[in-house]
Structures
1.
Amino acid sequence: MKEKIICFSLGLSEDDREKGKTSFYGSGSAAPVLEIIALTGDLMNTKTGDALKSMIAGAKLNGGEKKQSSEKELIPGESQYRIIMINASERGQVLQIVRNFKAVLPDPQNIIFAVITDAARTWTFAEYIEHLAAEHEYMKNRKPGDNPDLKKL
């Protein structure tokens, strides 16, 4: 069985996800399977780790193939952020995904890329997104000159 990289996305259109996948597969024929799952409202209270286990086991998220009306994808514009959460076995795979998506999507500096850590697996998607948004805002608004350790450089 070919290795699978699982990503969850928020705020990316289907077209954005397809562009990123096409770019990823164009970077090498030996690329692992890249699966990108758009977050739905119903997934927000699901633990990230539980969703990953389901995907790795080959199960459908949201309990079936047909989406219910409450399971609609969170479309671009409904979220302040565009986020790609990556579960990959190798650092190089993560960097490849980041590079490929940044190469084809507009305004790439405003996409939050995150590796799904052990800590993140214990959080719901809502908690994880809140955490990532807080980190993103901190990094955007911090002033390196205010950091005494960076002044020395």
2.
Amino acid sequence: MNSYPQICGLVLAGGRSSRMGQDKAALIHPDGRTLVRRACDLLVDIGCQKVVLSIRHDQEIPAGLSDFGNLTIVRDPAGESVGPIAGMVTGMRLQATADWLVLACDLPRLDAATLSALVNSRRDGEKFLAYRSECDELPEPLCALYASESLPILEQAFADDMRCPRKILIRNDCRLLAPVSPNALDNANTPEDWASAILP
């Protein structure tokens, strides 16, 4: 049996939500939770020992988290809110020896089965593991597993001003899994996306 490092969860909620017109993290899912709370709960449900929320340096803490136990909040350094890579590096540095399950907060159809399959599919020596996009067959970097050994790669990419985590996965031979639940990784960037995503 393989012996893996501790797995921690990182929720990225530092986007400016300009296309949505309001903070996506605070949108209310049909189950009554905010999107950010639902993402944090899913990470706990599948066994993450630690959950970290990444937000901008000037951002208010999203609603719905006041009674969430043991949540650690990290903020991007001032002037370095340059997309998800800043939050990923800052969050993962908190526990550099852990593997990290990294999620965007704007995945209203994400389910525990999708996350469990990702965690249970990891192999010794893999730095990255992600799902194949249903749209373009490329890696889905914001519902992906980043092993502890991936942190130096992410740090170097950040230092080199490479802002696209998808390109990092492509360049590092990330193994891709077939989606478990249809549309589970559809994100909601606009009001139209949100209206479609919350339909039964």
